[in-house]
Write a structure and sequence with these properties.
Blueprint: H1 3-12, H2 18-21, H3 28-42, H4 47-51, E1 53-56, E2 59-62, H5 72-89, E3 95-100, H6 106-114, E4 118-124, H7 127-139, E5 146-150, E6 161-166, H8 173-176, H9 199-207, E7 212-221, H10 227-237, E8 240-247, E9 253-260
Parallel strand pairs: 3-4, 3-6, 4-5, 6-7
Antiparallel strand pairs: 1-2, 7-9, 8-9
Helix pairs in contact: 1-3, 5-6, 9-10
Length: 262
């Protein structure tokens, strides 16, 4: 669905096919709303914030400016995670998953939807963000399967998990000001990865072994050209074995899959 179709289906509350198979007439109220949407879009505001929603993994998600907009790269993270977790479910009856830096809840909700036997904890530092994540869990009928925790990374978390999956902030502080204007609408806290963009990876790689079960898996999304630096952090900590690095659809090393040593 392209942007024009997304606008019209949202405005008219209809399916994409309806745009091409039904006679649609916009009344004055709808025309006024459409004009406001198009003006906001011309001003550079992301369409997902204008409409207050997005689609991710074929599921509907509510969004506000407190939440980072999910990207297609993160869908790849979820798809690969599901592949790996399904193979583990053949060997274990219960799978415990932690979605760290959960944001809108797109990762946790999608995993809960497509992995009926998994149980999840979704954590984020932002109370406002968690409110939207909980709403998305309810909208997709998986709220009973996810526990939401407000936590600065691992600070308020307990227990051990088979999988930790995360898409942390990974843009360097200096680079944020040079990003495309649309990103200025997104929460700064969801973008800023520190001076070199790697602050969260250092902390996660150092602390996550205490929260992973024996041979637990850590799966992380990465930014452009960060994979070598993240590999070096992993080697320095010497707590993980790198299992795989997955490229996205543009050939960029985007996902790193690691296993706890012991």
């Amino acid at each position: 669905m392209d942007e024009k179709e997304f606008i019209l289906t949202s405005l008219l509350n209809c399916n994409r096919s309806d745009l091409y198979t039904k006679d649609i007439i916009l009344n004055n109220n709808l025309k006024c709303r459409l004009d406001k949407i198009l003006q906001a879009r011309r001003d550079g505001e992301p369409l997902q914030y204008i409409l207050g929603k997005t689609e991710f993994m074929s599921l509907d998600f509510k969004l506000t400016k407190d939440t980072f907009i999910p990207r297609p790269e993160t869908e790849l993270l979820v798809e690969k995670s599901i592949e790996i977790i399904k193979s583990e479910l053949c060997q274990k009856k219960k799978i415990q998953i932690l979605d760290l830096c959960s944001g809108s809840g797109c990762i946790a909700v999608s995993l809960a939807k497509y992995l009926p036997d998994a149980r999840l904890v979704a954590s984020d530092i932002s109370k406002a963000t968690l409110k939207i994540a909980k709403l998305n869990a309810r909208l997709n009928n998986v709220d009973k399967k996810i526990k939401f925790k407000q936590s600065d990374l691992f600070k308020n978390l307990t227990g051990r998990f088979n999988f930790i999956i995360t898409n942390p902030p990974y843009i360097s502080t200096l680079d944020i000001k040079n990003l495309q204007p649309e990103l200025s609408y997104e929460p700064y806290i969801a973008l800023d990865g520190g001076k070199d963009g790697l602050d969260f990876y250092r902390k996660i790689i150092k602390e996550s072994p205490k929260f992973l079960k024996e041979n637990g898996i850590l799966i992380m999304e990465m930014g452009f050209s960060q994979h070598e630096n993240i590999k070096n952090i992993l080697k320095k900590e010497a707590k993980f074995e790198i299992l795989d690095i997955i490229k996205d659809y543009q050939g960029i090393e985007r996902i790193i899959i690691t296993k706890k040593n012991g």
